[in-house]
Amino acid sequence: MTWRWIQLAAAAACLLVGIIFMVLAVFGVNRFHKALNRMHAAAMGDTLGILFVFAGLIVMRGFSMDSLKLFLVILFFWSAGPVSGHMISRLEAMTDEELGKILIIRKTGKEEGTDEAV
To answer: How far apart are CA 7 and CA 55, in angstroms?
Structure first.
């Protein structure tokens, strides 16, 4: 009986932490002005929020085939999320004219690009 209460408390704590991360990500997405900053806030909330929510569901269900499926969903989100975020950020970096040229410093010490170093 005591084990069930501990399991319920751990699952509730994981679910609560996951929901907090997701809510903070919503505020981060609405607070930031640039698209890349918004993507960072959304990615942090997405990866950590999904991890803790699904970890809470795994703890709640116990170790079974359902928890294995939830673990596989976590692995899928953790492998697909960064790839899609990277592709979207590259698109934003290539199409946004306000980002300017990237400053490249070679080993010889010469700088390329039109932006001046501040």
So the answer is: 12
Has this prediction a pTM greater than 0.70? Answer: no
Residue position matching structure tokens 């975020």? 85
The single residue listed with the structure tokens 């596989």 is: 72
Of all residues in the chain, what percent carry a pLDDT higher than 90?
Answer: 24
CA 42 to chain centre: 6
Lowest mean pLDDT among 18-27, 54-63, 93-102: 93-102
Spatial distance between the Cα atoms of 35 and 47, rounded to a whole number of angstroms: 18
**Nearby residues of 43 by Cβ (< 8 Å), 6 or more positions away:** 81, 82, 85
Whether the predicted pLDDT of 111 surpasses 60: no
Could you tell me which of 44, 50, 59 has the C-alpha nearest to residue 19? 50
Residue 112 belongs to what H/E stretch? strand 111-112
Cα separation of 51 and 78, whole Å? 9
CA-CA-CA-CA dihedral for 74, 76, 80, 85, to nearest 10:
-10
